[in-house]
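Extended Data, panel c. Modelled sequence:
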Amino acid sequence: MSATPVTRQNVRVLSNLPAARDTFVGRQQELSKLDQLLRRHRLVTLVGSAGAGKTRLALEAAGRLRRGRTDRVLLVSLGEITASRDVMPALADALGVIAQFDEPLRDTVVETLVNMKMLVVLDNCEHLLDTCAELTDVLLNRCPGVRVLATSREALWITGEVSFHVEGLPVPSTDRDVVTMAAPRSEAVKLFVDRARERKPDFRLTLDDTAAVALLCARLEGMPLAIELAARWVQLLPVAAICDRMDEPLELLTLGCRKSPSRQSSLREAIDWSYQLLQPDEQFALRRLSVFDGGFDLAAANEVCSSERSAEPVLDVLSRLQAKSLLAAIPGTTRFRQLETVRLHAREKLLAAGELDVAYEALARWFTDLSDVLITAPLSMPADVQHKLDNHVDSLLGTVEWAADRADERLLLLTAALADCTARRGLLGQARMMLRDALRRPSTRDDYRCVALNHAARFAAGQGDHAEAAELSAEASRLVRDIGQPALVMSSRSTLAAVQQSSGEWEASVENNTECLRVAELLGEPLARATALVDLARTALSLGKHERAEKNVMSALPISRASGVPARIASALNTRGAVSLVQGDLDEATHAFQEALRMDGLNPLTAPDALEGLAVVALTRGQAERALRLEATGRAMRRSVGVVPNPFWAEKVAGAMRTARLMLPVARAEAAATPLTAADTEAFIQDEVWLDRTEAAFDSLDDHERRVVALLASGLTNQQIANRLNVSVRTVASRLQRLRDKLGLQSREDIAAWGAERAIG
């Protein structure tokens, strides 16, 4: 019997790929994309940082190649090869080619491959880039049936290459409201659970552990190697304890495998492998950049990286570090970031090199230059300076801690800038604590102390702590007299006026703000002028001088809009809305409050005024339920940050809500006075759609639900309703729970009252 000829239909895909020893988790979209790329391109390079899972993804993609797509799949592992001369022998060995005495090995390999249909997987090329690039170029030029799938921390940079960036696995939300539902579906969490069961077969993701695993995966940024190493600790520690130790991930993630390459035996070795491959100027820059926590821009990088030790332009070095997967550009911005584990490794190198203080000194100098506006133009901070500080707030915190450890004289100014950023995020209590701690320390700069006192006084007034606010603003007023800075004097008077306004001292507030307005005009500071005008409008409103209030706020609005600062614009719009409200112009008030919400979103420092203003508008139009729901939403926001309204506004809103409650039955009023969810509030802001679930659900009730509501409204018990409907009491209770969820009501009594008012039957 003759042998069966080898044809395309029955050819077997042969490979030297190692058999998988554990489950491949996730990455289905990446595998699909890789399959498409390998169909269309002859060279695809998987590029990513240490521990991103490039090798495992490449092996999985290569192993899934369909019969007929290739004759063979050849893995060439380069991780343990250190010399360029050993690359070709490694390929020959994998291919099973023996060197011929009368022919160069390269020619022998090429002649073997020239008529073959093969995928060559070149794994770990980063330390042999030039040699791998040259070899790949030869294979692609001379062997038309060969395709190459390479893995590297940097692209090969040859013609025809397609780079495929491998990032960490998607991480779950750590929001406590959704984490228990979202986390088990996360690829990162699935990987942790799978690898944990290798060490502890009975491991289960309990409800208590879910949030901890989600947080751990998020802190490890979804990097597979880090997650796998962390999972190996479950045989020794509870998940919560592993998560608690993530402050030192390089120390914790060291449980490797005896058979792993040395660079993969721990996270530190994996990252150090990349570090050792860098040029000296790249190592220098990477060390210096480790002082940035949370990202940085080019200007900030220039400050800490410019040195006689780094002759190359900083942007050029950054681009090379990005190409080597040690930096990442933040999408949609002109900023960069390091993976946290890379940053911590670079910080270790910074300490070992004795450069920590030099780097932080450069960063402190940069932040001080930015923050100088708090002295020279404290009421007129440009939007770009504010954005820079906000974008580098985590690094600013680190700089403040560094300055505090060294009793640096810049501490008070830097803390004031940090507190300003913190307060803009709604964390007034935290901002006050920072300033209290800094103000207890000795200071040699009265101007810095005055800035810190003014900030502390404003924040205390905002939270209704009038005694502390008055004490702080009084000290600032005494201190500023001898400083000789007109802008700082103006700022201190503005702070004093704000403190007086918060406690209802309207006439005194008017006097100080009027002086601020005069100085702002003399100094030619339009933003300071707008601040004074808005404050004067509020005090005029409180004093019943409505025309003056309108004149002031209308003068301030165009200046505020030109500032480009959302919170400043929203504040002016809220004041415009309040003026229109007391003048009876409900349409203008509505427009102003809605624009304020769209301008500054759910900022808890500005949104409550707008929501409360819209609540008063709703009440005036006879919409009591709407009024109570909006006011409750604004009040919940205030409570979340501890901000209180000024006495005039507080009384106006409270009076309107008392009227709204009188317009409704008690149960209905209580049901309405519950805050909107964040999602509902966001939808209301964006679409101006009122999301009252009780009204929206009216038409969605089916006949069975209407029958239950009608029986409940008639005063029957659950047992009596069950008897009427010929169902169990448990079924009635279940239906009532669904009704509570659908209607957004809190109790059985709320449903009964709701049904009675609408005569459902």
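The first strand starts at residue 14 and ends at 15. This feature is highlighted in the accompanying rendering.
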